[in-house]
User: Fold this.
Amino acid sequence: MERSMMKRMKDCRDCEDCDSKQPLFKFLTPENYELLNKDRFVVGFKKGELVYKQGTSFTHVIYLISGLVKLYMETRNRNLIIRISKPMEFIGGPGMYTSERHQNSAMALSNVCACFININSFKEVVRTNSLLSEELLKLISVKGQQVFDRLMSISHKQAPGLVAEALLYFSEQIYNSTSFDLNLSRQEFGDFCGMTKESAIRVLKDLKEEGIIKVDEEHFEIFDIPALRRISEIG
Assistant:
């Protein structure tokens, strides 16, 4: 990360008065806010820039203020996108309390604004605020279950079921619309589905020919949600 980026932006506000405050921050005390606000900074990333690299030191908890970020595992043969993060979410992984290194990589899918909170300050707040700790555990459990469910799908579903599940995920959880511009390339879409780009394109073509979806470059329209659900469930 360039040194020039590691600074507070001009419009960066105090944590307690932040318009993009995470819901669980309602459990913070004034002392907690003071500690977190003391040693944090906001960074802007352009589409395609790395937010952090797999294997690097886990020095900050990262809170996404705006934009979309893909979290992915780098393997010898291919990348596996495990989650798409949207505003008002923390991004990172289990490395904070294990290896103290990032266990995945994060890349901006659009222009992104993120708040970097010093990990030691964050851990101190977690240790001293039981209400926040409980809510954080709930949040981590939900995200962990979502990743587990995705890996189970990749292990058991066939290509049509995986693509249908992915389209429902983007429609309902990321864009909240049946008409959206997908921020992923076809290769990234294949990585998200756990298949090759060619297989993903073939399934998209089949769905288009069946009148279930319309695809025009990055723009997707879903005409038949029930049909996608059936395909996803059959797998």
Remarks:
- The CA atoms of residues 12 and 42 lie 7 Å apart.
- Confidence is low (pLDDT under 50) at residues 1-10.
